[in-house]
Amino acid sequence: MQLLTLEFEGIGPFTGRHTIDLQALGEGGLFLLEGPTGSGKTTIIDAIVFALYGDVAGVDSSKGRLVSTQLRPGCEPYVDAILETSRGLLRVRRVPQYERRKSRGNGTTIGKASIKLWKLAHPGDEGTLLSTSLQDATEELQRAIGLTKEQFTQTVVLPQGHFATFLRAKPEDRRGVLQDIFGTEFYERVARQLAGLASGYRSRDAAAQLALGQAAASFGRVAWSADDPAAEEFAAAVTSGDSATVLALAEAQVAAVTATAARAAVVAGEAEAAWSAADGVLRAAVERNGLIAERVRLDERSARLAAAASEVAEAAERVEAAERAEHVRRPLDAVTKAKAACEGANAEAARGRAQVADSPDADLLGESVGPEELEAASLSARERRSALTTVVETEAALPGRAASLKLDLERLAERRSAIVVEQKRVAADRAQASQLMPELDAVRAIAATLGQCVALGVEAQGRLDEVRRLERVAAEYVEARGVEGEAREASEAAQTAYDQARTAWLAGLAGTLATELEDGSACPVCGSLDHPAPARLPKGAVSRARVEQLDADSREAGQHLAAAVARSDALATAMADQQDVVGDLTLREAEEAVSAATLRIRAAERAVEASDQLRVRIEELLVGADDRERRLRDDEQQLASDKGGLAVRAERLDQDRLRVADELDGYGSVAERALVLARRAERAQRLAVLLRKAEQAEVELRHRSDELAVVLAERGFAADDEARAALLAESERRRLAALVSEHQAQEARVAERLADPQLMALASAEAADEGPLAEASALAHDAAQTALRESGAAARGVRLATEASDELRSCVDEVNSVRAEAEPYLRMADVANGTGQNLDNVTLPTFVLLRRFEEVVDLANVRLGAMTGGRYSLRRTDAREGRSHKLGLGLDVVDHASGDAARDPKTLSGGETFQAALAMALGLADAVTSEAGGIELNTLFVDEGFGSLDPDALDMVMDQLSALREGGRCVGVVSHVADMKQRIAERITVIPRRDGTSTLACSTDPQPALAG
């Protein structure tokens, strides 16, 4: 895997777009990423890791730091990288989640994170889009790189502040890192799965043992009594786990219980046969006594039936006569009903004649007046009444028509008056519209000046803005001058401190060199191997690092002063330019001009509004007058038409009054005459109906009497009174018939039963005594029940013992099966988890990691020996991890200059820690490269740590980094150490700006490398 190009915008302090050609920078194999502290060097490392994995490099950092806090409006932050992998050339463009302005309205919204992944044929190719899914694209990138993010930051990008993490880690923490990097979690899963299987088998064995104990206890309860010695022998065999003896004792006891049950069954059969014989004798005696009692009851019942025979015969005769009379019942009822109807009709007819005789229509009655004559008189009266119907209606409507005509005439006069009033209103509206026209012309003249007033107002506001801008620039200039003074004082103080420190450092330089002298080593000044009187550090001596720090502070203060001076000069120029624009105009004059223009604009706006209101009012008056005039013309036409209609209605009313007067015929009204005729027709018709009903009732009575005479003769009755006397109520007739039928049925049943041969043979027999027989049967029954219970209990004992024996055998088989199946898994689990017979107590994952860790340590020692001149090497130790039985992955540093003394990595100095950690990281990278199946890690970034090295140590570290270059890798070194600039020609320089943002410059110009 090799990074070729990196492009980003809006990331960290980098607000602009920046492109880094890593391929060109890495042609020499080594390049430097340098810049002041906090300028954004680590941000570039984070951008690389974010592009590939969607996260930042440091575990303590947040992705929130990626997006620039000074992101330009409309700018989308992104990182774009091209890399060469085992799967070909890939390009990835990733956008972090960020806050942006809404496209509509105010406020902000959240821009979503996104990604695009392309496959390229060559670096300049547009490529084929592979994915836009965050998850899919990230997974595809990880497969192409061959490393997880954690592995990447341990092998390709070595983040700032994390060099010593792996070196100083606890064995258990180091184990987790190695497991993630080398993928040995597979062995961890295998060990866990084997432990889980072993636990499961142990649980199954315990469950099988528990089931066996329960089955044995159950068998003991059902097969033996509590005091049986064999039960104690069985319990002892169960406790000792002798399954063969347990099964043998169980089988023997089942056989014994079975034999006992067979003997109990024979005894029960014999007792049951004896009880059956005694019970048969008892049942025969009971049956004979029952027959004797029945014969006695039948004889008594036959005597009672003979005594009631005469009464039953009389009831039978009454039933026969009632049945004949039933056929006469309907004709009798019909004659009775006809007589009542005839009498009622004649009475109604008599009352009707009397009512007519007392009425004004008594002339309807005569000596021979019948229904036909009365109906003719009724018809004549109705015809004359019908001829008056129209006249009656006309007469009834006359008052209403007269009142309606009067009301309509009054309304016509009111409408005429309203038309006159409306004509006056129309004239008044037209006069008001004429009066408003001059006022409208005057207002329109003022409104026409609105555009000119607005233009003057805009001009006045522009002059006011320029005056205010001049005041703001002047205030900023005063503030900038103050900042400039403070920066000047700070710069002078920093320069003075640096000069004093440098003088002190030069004065104590001999003492500083003397502190670095060692016996047997040449003096860098005189070359002598002996140092009899080395110089001493003077009081108040200053270190070189302090001088360099004060020098940097002085340069930084100078930069701040230059920036402050530049800002003051820029503001002075801007203030002069703005004064030229403003001229002699004062702020008060500009504000008064704006106020006056505002008043004129408001007056013109009010005139525009008043003009619109007047125009609308005049239009309303004129349009309303036109509309009312049209309605008035329509109303006058309608008024004339309605007046003619009322005249026609008055003429028709007079004609109808004359017609009604012609039909009075001496009555007060035509309606009264019509009512008299209607009553005469009704009286004649009602009397005709009554007379006709009386005639019909007499005819019906004669007909029903003839029918009755015929039926009486047919049923054998001499007169209707005889038939009525024979009639019975339905309930009584049914009662007597049932009495006769039941008597006959009982006689037949008694005779049939007495004819039975068994009853005939017992005519004079006596009943036997059942007591002794019942007692003998009961004794035999009790004996049989006792024997049956004992036999059933024995059979249940056989069944329970057999079932318990089968369950016992099944549990023994289950225990043997589980143990045979579990044995290989338990043995493998002990081996994999360092328990049981694993004498070394080494788990399978630890064993694998030990081999990998030893390989890493061997590779790291090659680097560390070269970096430290052979003084230090690393050695794996068998440190324990807490209280567990697992061997750890401890690490010691062997100091060969101190008799191969073992030291804790935490005791190393800063520079020694950096060398050891860098060697371990490089060894880890070499091991991962060889372990990952041919993955080539051709790009490496080392972030910081070089400032802790002295020149000699730096030389040896640089030699190792150069060796990486010779192996085909491109190494990027992140540092702000000044000496690194002289050693490395190719550089990425991060340049901070005064506004807190940064930019960068790439340099590939060769520079002479100075030897340490």
Number of helices: 25
Strand order of the largest sheet: 2-1-4-5-8-9
CATH domain class name of the domain at 1-146 and 963-1012? Alpha Beta
Classify the beta-strand content into a percent band.
5-15%
* Rounded average pLDDT: 81
Shape: flat
What does this protein look like?
The chain is an alpha+beta fold. The chain has a domain of 196 residues: P-loop containing nucleotide triphosphate hydrolases (Rossmann fold, 3-Layer(aba) Sandwich). The chain is 68% helix and 10% strand. It has 25 helices and 17 strands. The strands form four sheets. It has a six-stranded antiparallel sheet. Strands 10-14-15-3-16-17 form a six-stranded mixed sheet, with helices on both faces. It has a three-stranded antiparallel sheet with strand order 11-12-13. Helix 7 runs antiparallel to helix 21. The C terminus is likely disordered. InterPro entries: P-loop_NTPase, Rad50/SbcC_AAA. This is Nuclease SbcCD subunit C. GO terms for molecular function: ATP hydrolysis activity. One of its GO terms (biological process) is double-strand break repair. Pfam families: AAA_23 (PF13476), SbcC_Walker_B (PF13558).
